[in-house]
Structure formats: structure tokens, C-alpha cells
Specification:
Length: about 120
């Protein structure tokens, strides 16, 4: 299931804790497992395990909040425990995430493929 259609976010993960985190650096792929998600079009909570997959981005940047400078994703990154916010603008996806060590990162993915795989 695609996460984005016509520059519009279709699903969110508000208040959902990441149960598994995978970052394949060479493959440009991040997998975040959740116990459920929220369907924005149907306006309902879906209690079904799923994996949010972010991959094949042309460029990925990150910064540790509240720093103002973005750097390559690998330079400022940790194990994601929760997605705080997601915004979509054209071919760019902006995410704010918290990590298991209670840090907050702002992430930017340029031209990513983002979708949900139901388990």
C-alpha cells in the first residue's frame, strides 16, 4: 500500500511505537515495524501489524534537533522509536522522529519510495 498519493499522506503512525527498526545503508532502505496505523482517508485506526518501508531515495539528510545544519543521513541518525511528524511537499518527505535514547531528528528524503507492507 503506497503511503503517499498525489503529494498527500494516506496513513500515519501517531502514538505508535516502532517494534522493529532496520536500516540497510547500502540498499538505501529503512524498515519500521508497527502494531497498527491510522488510515487518513477512512478516518479509522487499523490494528494490524505492518512495516513502513522507505527506500530508493535519491538523497537523504538528517539533523539532530535543534541543530540547524542538515548532513548526510548516516552522520546524524539513531534507532527510531517513534515517528513524531511527516510532511510531504512534491518529491520531498520531511519526518521528525524520536529515538530510543530520547533524541529528536529531522529527516528529509528526496524522491523516496514509501509504502506499507501488511503482516
Amino acid at each position: 500500500m503506497n503511503l503517499i498519493r498525489n503529494n498527500k499522506l494516506l496513513y500515519t503512525f501517531d502514538d505508535e511505537v516502532v517494534s522493529k527498526f532496520v536500516y540497510a545503508i547500502d540498499e538505501k532502505k529503512i524498515e519500521l515495524s508497527f502494531d497498527g496505523f491510522y488510515d487518513l482517508e477512512k478516518d479509522e485506526v487499523i490494528d494490524r501489524k505492518c512495516i513502513l518501508i522507505i527506500e530508493s531515495w535519491s538523497k537523504a539528510l538528517s539533523r539532530l534537533y535543534p541543530n540547524s545544519k542538515f548532513d548526510n543521513l548516516g552522520s546524524n541518525f539513531g534507532i527510531i522509536s517513534m515517528i513524531v511528524a511527516v510532511n510531504v511537499e512534491h518529491d520531498e518527505v520531511y519526518m521528525t522522529v524520536s529515538t530510543i535514547d530520547n533524541r529528536h531528528y529531522d529527516l528529509i528524503f528526496l524522491k523516496p519510495s514509501m509504502y506499507i507492507s501488511l503482516i
